[in-house]
């Protein structure tokens, strides 16, 4: 991030509107849960713990059903449902913990959205495995990329309007629906989704896809209405002063190649490895979404090209020039590269922001009052000059270093 971006990020204020039906019923649970969290536990640590749980429980399903056709054991579905519930709960209380400990920062918002972008991919894959949607690969492709695109669109409208909006039926409702799908698959078996609906020529899983499609159309319409109305920038532009339609280009550079490579593959790389394929392209989309969130929070123009696109480019070139390397091997290389690139980018951005704002990512540094400093003495009761490396006065030391207020400096010096 440039110095200008870091400065604008420091001035960013979180703006959100939520009309979610379930959120108001879950607030008491979230309030109780956060009250049990120790004050020393950093909000970002809560977020990353939830994401790790979500990823690990989904990978258990992927292990048993890598093609989204095989039947996973019943306990794997329950584990995945619990993992998603844990992630949803921890994701809901990280902001509460930040306000509770007085550690709310723009980095927390960015970190939260970054974890959500990754979680969206794994949640979509787990839902497809639960209903064995791999038997309909085209529908699985459509369903997963719909979920990924909808998450991107949510931040697209935030980039345009400056406010992240949640409708009456949105993320929380979708998460609980998927938890229900996992529990149904656990108790009745995934084959329940293959039951044919009387008088209709399709099964239950296809009906589920149709309902999801209708919901996606509704959400796309809501996003389009916000975007096309115009942004809060000059002459109806985005928060960065760019065209409100500009974010469609980075998204297209992910979705369009994914579709072309899928259709042109002579080895049917997607049909044979659907989970691996969606995971690779989903993480590319997560990286692009992260850049959109950064562009929104720093009020900066979003770059169209990204280093994570090297992965899909390898697949495309391998097909175009008909190289001898099997496509599924290139797909694995693509996934490894995208994971490395996403982690590298996230780490670099977090470190730059932490350095700029003089904060810690996964640690809360307790502040120290002047009374603590005045009580610094040896075992004989004699006053000892404080050691600036002493953890008890680290907070005051940081305040002296970072404070821009002359009055604050004089006050702290007098107390010392």
From TrEMBL:
Pathway per the UniProt entry: Phospholipid metabolism; phosphatidylcholine biosynthesis; phosphatidylcholine from phosphocholine: step 2/2
Taxonomy, superkingdom: Eukaryota
GO CC terms: endoplasmic reticulum membrane; Golgi apparatus
Enzyme class: transferase
Pfam entry (one): CDP-OH_P_transf
KW Transferase (keyword) present: yes
PROSITE patterns reported for this sequence: CDP_ALCOHOL_P_TRANSF
Family note: Belongs to the CDP-alcohol phosphatidyltransferase class-I family.
Protein's name according to its UniProt entry: diacylglycerol cholinephosphotransferase
Native organism: Rhodnius prolixus (Triatomid bug)
């Amino acid at each position: 991030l440039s110095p200008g971006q870091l400065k604008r990020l420091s001035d960013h204020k979180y703006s959100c509107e939520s009309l979610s039906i379930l959120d108001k019923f879950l607030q008491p649970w979230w309030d109780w849960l956060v009250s049990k969290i120790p004050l020393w536990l950093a909000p970002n640590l809560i977020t990353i713990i939830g994401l790790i749980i979500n990823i690990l429980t989904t990978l258990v399903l992927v292990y048993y059903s890598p093609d989204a056709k095989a039947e996973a054991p019943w306990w794997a579905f329950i584990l995945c449902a619990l993992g998603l519930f844990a992630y949803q709960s921890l994701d809901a209380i990280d902001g509460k913990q930040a306000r509770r400990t007085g550690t709310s920062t723009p980095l927390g918002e960015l970190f939260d959205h970054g974890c959500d972008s990754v979680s969206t991919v794994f949640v979509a894959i787990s839902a497809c495995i639960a209903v064995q949607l791999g038997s309909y690969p085209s529908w699985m492709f459509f369903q997963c990329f719909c979920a990924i695109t909808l998450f991107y669109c949510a931040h697209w409208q935030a980039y345009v309007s400056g406010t992240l909006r949640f409708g009456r039926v949105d993320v929380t409702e979708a998460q609980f629906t998927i938890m229900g799908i996992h529990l149904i698959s656990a108790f009745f078996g995934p084959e329940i989704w293959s039951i044919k609906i009387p008088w209709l020529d399709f099964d239950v899983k296809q009906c589920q896809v149709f309902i999801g499609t209708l919901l996606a159309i509704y959400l796309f319409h809501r996003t389009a209405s916000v975007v096309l109305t115009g942004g809060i920038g000059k002459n109806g532009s985005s928060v960065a002063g760019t065209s409100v339609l500009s974010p469609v280009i980075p998204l297209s550079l992910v979705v369009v190649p994914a579709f072309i490579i899928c259709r042109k593959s002579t080895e049917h790389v997607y049909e044979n490895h659907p989970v691996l394929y969606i995971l690779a392209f989903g993480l590319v989309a997560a990286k692009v979404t992260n850049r959109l969130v950064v562009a929104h929070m720093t009020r900066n123009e979003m770059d169209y090209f990204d280093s994570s696109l090297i992965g899909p480019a390898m697949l495309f070139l391998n097909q175009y020039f008909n190289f001898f390397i099997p496509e599924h091997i290139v797909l694995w290389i693509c996934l490894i590269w995208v994971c490395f690139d996403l982690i590298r980018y996230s780490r670099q951005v977090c470190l730059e922001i932490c350095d700029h704002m003089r904060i810690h990512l996964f640690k809360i540094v307790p502040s120290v009052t002047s009374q603590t400093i005045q009580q610094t003495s040896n075992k004989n009761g004699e006053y000892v000059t404080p050691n600036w490396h002493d953890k008890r006065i680290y907070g005051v030391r940081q305040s002296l270093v970072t404070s821009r207020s002359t009055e604050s400096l004089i006050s702290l010096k007098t107390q010392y």
